[in-house]
Amino acid sequence: MKVFHCDHCDHLVFFESVMCVVCEHTLAYLPDLGVTGSLDQSRDGLWTSPLERARGKTYRLCQNYTEHAVCNWAVPADDPEPYCQSCRLTRVIPNLANPANKAAWYKLELAKRRLLYTLIALKLPLVSKADDPAGGLAFEFLADPEDPSLPRVLTGHADGLITVNLAEADDAERERRRTQMHEPYRTVLGHFRHEVGHHYWNVLIRDGGRLDSFRDVFGDERADYGAALQRHYADGAPSDWQNNFISAYATAHPWEDWAETWAHYLHMVDALETAVGCGISIRPRRADEPSLKPDTKVVSRTPSAFDAMIASWHPLTYVLNNLNRGLGQPDGYPFVISEKVIEKLRFVHDVTTAPQPAPKRTPPAAAVAVA
Question: Once rounded to an integer, what is the mean pLDDT over residues 151-176?
């Protein structure tokens, strides 16, 4: 995430901000400019930015910004859609008659906008199901039914549709599930990054002509998915799983290995861009301790940038974990990256930085829901 400032008073603002606390100008994220900036309202009700590169542009605030205060993105005034690029991907929201549902919906949209920020920065194909029902992306945010005898909502992905259980926005419930599942890490943003990885497996691997190279790195995804999950939940991960996988769940099936690795790559992209944007450097007193320079190469969208990313990642997470421990918090980065995992992360990097081929859409015989 980049560092943003108010365009009127130059005060520091954040990606999620809606008002400058100093000059009280309205703030909005402008996807066409890639900035969270301050706006001026004109007589016709539209908004303008004082930035030179926004000269001649006018905006509307996303309808979810003005009506529900769950969004802070703007929409170009000539765009006929009332919703921003992120909100228009959400096709089902929870019942807002329940105030708790609105608070949870806000948390889910917050995480989704950060996901979209990264996907846009990576220049990945981003098409909604409204525009492409077969190959597009959509989100549904659902609450469990009140009747305990009815099936619970499962967070997962099925052929471009990502469903998220509203309970994941409840910190206490998410922590309970994390403990129950013996997971070291479980966040709302992590769910979004994982599930969208399944979508991009369809787009970039299956339809992008990369199946053979994928199988060379992750294994053969044609193995029975349902049976693989049953084995995983019955037997758990192999005792030496950290030698080859980023998480225990990644051992379940090549699809899950890809989605877990993909999510981890997005974690790295966001955290490293934030570190560079903040000018973070680590200058230890001993030469054998982790050091870090604010190197812009780590956020370069080129294949050769991966080595710089990996070289910067260890010192950054070393400091992150030490800071967390000093605050009495668990490690912010509870992972170990092996050489095999680095190979998989490099594959993801190569796929995201390569020119995107024309899609060869070959829908599966039946949509498979993956968790």
Answer: 91
pLDDT of residue 148: 86
A 10 A CB-CB count for 89 gives: 21
Q: Of 118, 196, 133, 136, nearest to 164 (Cα)?
A: 196
Q: Is 91 helix (H, G, I), strand (E, B) or coil?
A: strand
Q: Say if residues 314 and 290 touch (Cβ distance below 8 Å).
A: yes
Q: What is the DSSP letter of 222?
A: T
**Which residues, other chains included, contact 157 with Cβ-Cβ below 8 Å and sequence gap of 6+?**
163, 195, 196, 198, 199, 369, 370, 371
Phi, psi of 344 (to 5 degrees): -70, -40
Closest CA to 59 of 25, 91, 82: 82
Spell 62-83 as b/e; 16+ CB within 10 A means b.
Answer: bbbbeebebbbbbbeeeeeeeb
On the question of pLDDT at 363 being above 50, the answer is no
Mean pLDDT over each residue of the chain, to the nearest integer: 90
CB 62 within 8 A of CB 75: yes
* Whole-prediction pTM: 0.89
Q: Which amino acid is present at 98? A: N
For 111-145, the pLDDT digits (tens) are 999 999 999 989 999 999 999 999 999 999 998 88
Long-range (24+ apart) CB contacts under 8 A made by 204-208 are 204/124, 204/125, 204/351, 204/352, 204/356, 205/258, 205/351, 206/362, 207/135, 207/359, 207/360, 207/361, 207/362, 208/351, 208/356, 208/357, 208/359, 208/360
CB distance 123 to 117 below 8 Å: no
Largest CA distance in the chain: 66
**10-48 burial: b if 16+ Cβ within 10 Å, else e:** eeebebebbebeeeebbbbbbbeeebbbbbeeeeeebbb
Read off φ and ψ for residue 39, nearest 5 degrees.
-130, 155
Measured distance CA(254)–CA(260) in Å, rounded: 10
**pLDDT over threshold 50, residue 362:** no
Contact 149, 157 (CB under 8 A): no
Say if CB 195 and CB 156 are below 8 A apart.
Answer: yes
Per-residue pLDDT tens over the stretch 76-107: 999 999 999 999 999 999 888 888 999 999 99
List, in sequence order, every residue forming a beta bridge with 165; answer none if it has no partner. 142
Separation CA 195–CA 205 (nearest Å): 15
